[in-house]
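Design review, sub-item: ligand-bound model
Attendees: FS, YL, KQ
YL presented the inputs for the acetoacetyl-coenzyme A complex:
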Amino acid sequence: MEALIGQEYEDLRESVRAIAEEKIAPFAHDVDAQSRYPKEAHDALIATNLFAAHIPDLYGGEGADALATVIIIEEIARVCGSSSLIPAVNKLGSVPVILAGTEEQKAHYLPLLAKGGGFSYCLSESEAGSDAAAMKTRAVKNGENWVLTGSKKWISNAGESAFYTVLASTDPTLGAKGITAFVVEATDHGISFGAPERKMGFKGSPTREVYLDNVEIPDSRRLGAVGEGFAIAMRTLDHTRITIAAQALGIAQGAFDVANKYAHERSQFKHPLFDFQSIQFMLADMAMNIAAARTLTYSAAVKSERGEKDLTFYSAASKCFASDVAMRVTTDAVQILGGYGYVSDYPVERMMRDAKLTQIYEGTNQIQRIVMARHLDDL
Ligand code: CAA
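KQ shared the predicted structure:
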């Protein structure tokens, strides 16, 4: 990889891996078992400026480019998927500000995010998941203000984040063209949160509904033009589906590392498992698929940084491919560990449960294929 991405990124990987191993990995099992927010990771990420490293240094961040952000998320996910959602969600919530915010909005929100005020992204609703443009949440103009009413579903880190990018319909007769983006703050009157969902995986990351009950906010909280919200939301996903690919990659690498080590340490029939060709072939396939997912994900990150025209295709492709790889690799890791893989003494069963979500959120892998198919001519 060093030849492909350069020494500075490998140095970054090494330093994030050390932080992840020391400050995040020791709590990953407990975070999952207790379904509790990874407070230790949250604090460690703030202390090391990795909480929202993608924020430009002009606004108090680390100025990590898209590839650096991918490597940060990958290395955190290698030990704890839930913790890796902290920087991933913070990027997702704030990219609309970066893409469409005014200078005042950027100067206000981005430093607050870099300092530890998380930023969630509110697109989905109970009846508008894959069909995001079917949202019912309304924003109605009231003088110089907007009044938001409705509810958003499956919102990652809801309740923990200080800020929420909310997509709402300002003109239901216009469909996707009648959607506008706003920033809602956790302290706004009328915002509240549902009970945390009880999930298969990513148990440390709270997923809750966000209720908006006549939340009145000034027009200065609007991101971009009225009616531009859906395009902003989609452009955002072009940049952030890559972070889900990074997460999937990290989970797959974590599971591979455990399975590879186990195969060398565990003996059956008087031989280490690794002596058996059936196990060698499984590990070889796992490593091959991880390498391919990494190459595709890093390529997508470079395209995100450069704003290349085939970004939409690559972003969807990296998320789709890496998450399918993560599902297969984690399932095989459980298989290699046998009974030990199926119980929680080893992390691979957690990784297998976590991997499943990467095939679903930020657009199911079926939606990614729709996106890819619509952008074949960009290649
Ligand atoms: N960039 C800019 N504009 C875009 C765009 C993009 N990538 N994609 C679409 N648009 C624009 C289109 O150009 C179109 O405008 P025009 O008519 O002027 O061309 C408008 O938006 C509507 O686009 P479509 O007709 O393509 O819209 P659609 O209704 O067919 O939906 C879709 C397209 C790809 C299926 C979209 O609904 C989608 O991505 N669905 C999945 C939703 C999703 O990913 N949700 C994730 C939630 S966030 C999450 O999960 C995060 C988490 O928890 C951590």
